Amino acid sequence: MKSKKQLEDLEKAKAHQELSQNQGQTEQPVPQPAPLDQLQQQLDGLAQTLRQQRAETEAGLQDAFSQATAGLGDAQALAQLQQVVSSLTGLARNQGLQGSAAQYHQLLGRLEQDLQKQVQSGLQQAARSLQQGVSALAQATAALMDNQIYCQLIHQVCHSRRLLTNWEFTGDTRIH
Questions:
Q1: The Cα angle at residue 137 between residues 136 and 141, in degrees rounded to 5
Q2: What are the pLDDT tens digits along the chain (176 aa)?
Q3: What is the CB neighbour count within 10 angstroms for residue 164?
Q4: Residue 77 · residue 118 · CB < 8 Å
Q5: How many other CB atoms are there within 10 angstroms of residue 42's CB atom?
Q6: Count of CB atoms within 10 A of residue 105's CB?
């Protein structure tokens, strides 16, 4: 009878010990995704980052096109100014003071209007240039951030390669 009591006490102690161990292990490790799932997650992250980079690059190209368009407008305005000055110069050479004063007034009025447009355009361009200066600083910062993103992408590629190597090495055939 004494041994039966001791056996019951031992079984209770063992059950109590197992219960204590199970309570201490409430944090069970989270199962790792299958290697293919991990690789797909890495590749999805790469694709998303590259899409963002492409969108930013296209926005930069749009800014460059806008600047080129403004430059073309300036070149056309300068050509027009040169044409008016050439007309005035030709009038002065060919007719001198014999020419019609109305022609001189007309050409000088046109030259003045064109020059006023250029002054206005120059002020607008100066304002744009100041804005572009601020934008250039932002672009420089963005370029540094892009470089950091590319470094992160390299890290992700290396991680993907490591996942693939581990997958090949372990022979794990789980897909998901």
A1: 115
A2: 555 665 566 566 666 666 655 555 555 666 777 778 888 888 888 888 888 888 888 888 888 888 888 888 888 988 998 999 998 898 888 887 777 888 889 989 999 999 898 899 888 888 888 887 888 888 888 888 888 988 888 988 898 888 888 888 887 666 55
A3: 15
A4: yes
A5: 19
A6: 10
